[in-house]
C-alpha cells in the first residue's frame, strides 16, 4: 500500500512558501531600484493584458470572421459548404496531374 503524504513534507513546503511571501512583501515595501523597476514592468504587463482582453472582446468576432470565412469557398481561402464525396486518394488516382513543364 502507498504511504499517506508525510505532514512534515507538506509543512516544509508551506513554510517555504510563507517565507518566500514574507521576503517578497519586505522587498516590495522597500524603496529599492530593482523593486521600482519590477513594479513598473509588472504594471506594464498587467495593463497590456487588460488592453489585449478588451481589444479581443471588441474586435474578436471581426478577426475570427476574417480568419474563418464562410461561403462557397475556393477563392480567397474560403471553406466549402460541403466536402467532396471522393477522398484525397481517390481523386489523386483518377486525375491527371500536371507536371512542372506544363
TrEMBL record:
Keyword Protein transport in annotation: no
Keywords for the protein's UniProt record, in alphabetical order: Membrane, Transmembrane, Transmembrane helix
Region (Disordered): 70-102
InterPro entries named in the record: TCTA
GO biological process, one term: osteoclast fusion
Keyword Protein transport: no
Superkingdom assignment: Eukaryota
GO cellular component, one term: membrane
Residues passing through the membrane, by range: 37-59
Localization, UniProt: Membrane
Entry's family note: Belongs to the TCTA family.
Name of this protein: T-cell leukemia translocation-altered gene protein homolog
Native source species: Coregonus suidteri
